[in-house]
Amino acid sequence: MTTRPAGGMRLAVVGKGGVGKSVVAATLARTLARRGHRVLALDSDTLPGLSISLGAQVPDDVPLNAAAERNEKGRWRLIKGVGPVRAVQRYATDAPDGVRLLQIGKHDRRGLEPNRASHNAFYQLIHRLDDAPSLEDWVILGDLPAGPRQMAFDWAPYAQQFLLVVEPTWQSMLTARRITRITTAMREDAQLSLVVNKVAADGDADRVQEFLGVPLIATVPADESVRRAERAGVALLDLAPDAPAVRAIERLADELDVRNMDRI
């Protein structure tokens, strides 16, 4: 019988657009699930990057639209009886390796208005995750949209550790610095860890780490398998399970597991 790892982790993956956040978040979520963790992936991006990188489906109808309603003053509220646990049971969808995926409504040709209920439900639910004892031993892993905007508006209140994914380019590093400043201003207890992605040359990781002053937890090499998976619209783990990028993210999972055990 598999022994389930003790204790949960609370993680949020942040960074500039195009740096590979969703690939890192999805591969990490499935790796932790394969090791026996119960994993809830939170997707607050209106684009479907995390779903694709997980190998999960984007529902035609947004499940979370049914979780919120307007009160008599026109303000959004969760429907009666819905909290974080029931939301995971009712509105999260299945992803490979047992990951549960709770998604905000995606942007389509109609814009965001048809999914306004899901956005409000998602925001209220993530602010109540700490009130759910039965989720305490779950890994909760959020993939935030590009840039600092959601951090500035408290879209990752559940996170104890922020994985700052940065590629060794000037634009990515500048955006990461802004995200770092906003995160530390918003959260005095914020623990930021640096993941340098798409490393192609000696010294890339050191250069990024020196610029940001954030502890380095992992480096992920530039990997053609990632580009092939993105072009095909499939999960990296399914296309190339032995790819160098996968091995690097597995080492990241090792480090997070060690830190989690030390915390416990």
Mean pLDDT, to the nearest integer, reads 93
> What is the H-and-E element order?
EHEHEEHEEHEHEHEHEHHH
Rg (C-alpha, Å): 18 Å
Give the number of DSSP strands.
Answer: 10
CATH topology: Rossmann fold
Q: In terms of per-residue confidence, which ranges show pLDDT below 50 for 5 or more consecutive residues?
A: none
User: How many structural units, i.e. domains?
Assistant: 1
- In terms of DSSP E residues, the strand content is 15-25%
**CATH class, anyone?**
Alpha Beta
Helical residue percent band: 25-40%
N-to-C terminal Cα separation, in Å?
Answer: 23 Å
Strand order of the largest sheet: 5-6-2-7-1-8-9-10
- By secondary-structure content and strand pairing, the structural class works out as alpha/beta
Oligomer: single chain
Per CATH, the superfamily is: P-loop containing nucleotide triphosphate hydrolases
Shape: globular
How many helices? 10
Just name the CATH architecture.
3-Layer(aba) Sandwich
| Biggest beta sheet summary | 8 strands, mixed
Model description:
The structure is a single chain. This protein is an alpha/beta fold. It has helices spanning 21-34, 49-54, 84-91, 116-126, 149-152, 170-186, 204-212, 224-232, 236-239, 244-263; strands spanning 10-14, 39-43, 68-70, 76-78, 93-94, 100-103, 139-143, 161-166, 191-199, 216-221. An 8-stranded mixed sheet has the order 5-6-2-7-1-8-9-10, with helices on both faces. The chain has a two-stranded antiparallel sheet with strand order 3-4. A hairpin with a 5-residue loop joins β3 and β4 (76-78). α1 (21-34) crosses α10. It starts with 9 loop residues before the first strand and ends with a helix. The model has no long low-confidence stretch (mean pLDDT 93).
